[in-house]
Amino acid sequence: GFHVTNPEAVMRGEKPVLEEVGPFVYKAVTVKDSVDQDTRKEHLEYNEDGETLTYRPRKFYFLDREQSSGDPDTTFITVPNVPLLTGFRKIRDAGWSKGTKVDVVKKTGLGTPFINVSFTGLLWGYHDELPCLSLARPDGCGLAEGEVDIFAEDADDDDEWGDDDWKRKKRETGRYKRDTEEEDEPVDLRDADFASMFRPKAEIVDCKCQWGLFRDRNVTLRKPLKIHHGMADLSKKGLVEEFDSSPSMNWWKPGSECDKLGGQDTSTLPPGWERTQAMDMFISLMCRRIKLAYEKDTEHLGLTSYRFIPPPNAMGSHTDPDPAKHNPDNSCFCLKEEGFSCFKSGVFNMEPCKRTPDLPLGAPIALSYPHFYEADQSFLDAVEGLKPVKEDHQFYVDVLPEFGFPLAIRPRFQLNAIIRKDEDIDIMSNFVDELVLPFLWAQDGFSEPSEEMAS
User: Fold this and answer.
1) Of 40-49, 160-169, 314-323, 433-442, which range is least confident?
2) Any alpha helices (H) in 143-260, and if so which ranges?
3) Residue range 60-77: average pLDDT?
4) What is d(CA 454, CA 144) in angstroms, rounded to the nearest whole number?
5) Where on the phi/psi map is residue 272: left (φ > 0), alpha (ψ -120 to 50), or beta?
């Protein structure tokens, strides 16, 4: 994670100074054939066409304290307040009612552009009433803490938070229910009581709202993915046909290549890879397909593999004048006509794929490689404390060419908050016009096969 050391200065328009914290290590277990507790059917089935199967994965996260640097429960970092920024994004063009809506957003929840929260809380849940604003409150809970009844005669008109309020709100973010566990007793992750383990992203618990960035990603049954199993045609093994029961992603320009499904499921590849081939992967977490090209031969436990990496223009802008970064194929990710920012090379606006009926403009989140690796220099110049290093921040796949088996795979990505100046909102009026601010980066997969895998 990235700790903002000077939040008040950033609110005045000064350059953010970031300090990297961690790493914190979680063991991730993916189950593709979990059992539905009501129907007793597996969430993996072979389709009648004889060529494809459809599965709905569950992912389980277990904290590995020994491999982690520090304790995520007691490590606090100052990060952008994503629920607040999302609320402001939603009402940015609200017209005559904007002032009233701003007042409600500010006074329901934590009310500041930056919060100080434990790393565990950030991922798996901390107390903030704003994300539950539209949820029905259980009987007996009454108004949420900090929630404003705008029709009450004695409604507080003070829009400012004093020092005591800031400190109180910092403490509140540390109150969470831990939703990841260390591995203690063996549990059958195919056939567990998933309902009792499930956590939505925002939930009222003991009359208080809990929200976490990945709170709904642990245990949750993901959207169905339809892929070729390869038994009818081995060369198509792992090729994606549908996501969420659709041949299109339904995030980008309709009918465009950007919105078209295809590419490989990252968990399985066909055999017979050549150095001259391009690898095309669909990664739902990134909301897109991404292409990789051969870089070099690598060796793992005596086995020779081919390393594939994204080319320098994989996330290049269609308007970049640099031929090495320019990528016209990415133009259909740019939805400027719908009110979304189109960033320079290396930063990908994820707002369109975060849209919901309640959030028609999505959540203000952008994706990049860690430390803005291979991104336009302007993103690095806008912050202090980043140092992109190829060996640490590059996305790569090492594949055993004969069998298509990945001996190492390291998807690496960084989440950035999109913070926009808004002169109609006092606490947002002095920011720079648009700031892409890193707050978390992660790597998935593994860098070495086990001896059992290699044999």
Assistant:
1) 160-169
2) 163-172, 194-197
3) 93
4) 55
5) left
Q: What is the pLDDT of residues 396-441, one digit of tens each?
A: 999 999 988 889 889 999 999 999 999 999 999 999 999 999 999 9
User: How many whole angstroms from its chain centre is CA 406?
Assistant: 23
Concatenated DSSP letters of 263-324: SEETT---S---TTPEEEEEEGGGTEEEEEEEEEEEEETTEEEEEEE--TTTT--TT-S-TT
How far, in Å, CA of 156 to CA of 227, rounded?
A: 56
Overall residue count recorded for the chain in this entry:
455
CA dihedral 436, 107, 120, 367 (to 10 degrees): -20
Whether the CB-CB separation of 340 and 372 falls below 8 Å is answered with: no
Give the whole-angstrom CA distance, residue 367 versus residue 381. 17
Report pLDDT for 314. Answer: 96
**Bridge pairing between strands 278-283 and 264-265:** parallel
257: CB partners within 8 A, 6+ apart = 329, 332
**Confidence band of 138 (pLDDT split at 50, 70, 90):** confident
Q: ω before 438 within 30° of 0 (cis)? A: no
Query: Is the pLDDT confidence value at 159 over 90?
Result: no
Task: Give the DSSP letter of residue 353.
Answer: G
pLDDT digits (tens, 9 = 90+) for 319-353: 999 999 999 999 999 999 999 999 999 999 999 99
* pLDDT score of 452 more than 80: no
pLDDT score of 154: 40
The SS3 of residue 364 is coil
Helix pair angle (82-90, 98-107), 10° resolution: 170
Q: How many CB atoms lie within 10 A of CB 23?
A: 15
Element (H, E) at 90: helix 82-90
Question: For residues 323 and 420, is the Cβ–Cβ distance under 8 A?
Answer: no
Whether the model clears a pTM of 0.90, i.e. scores above it, the answer is: no
Q: Largest Cα–Cα distance in the chain?
A: 76
DSSP H/E element including 35: none
- According to DSSP, residue 226 is labeled E
What is the CA angle 266-267-268, rounded to 5? 100
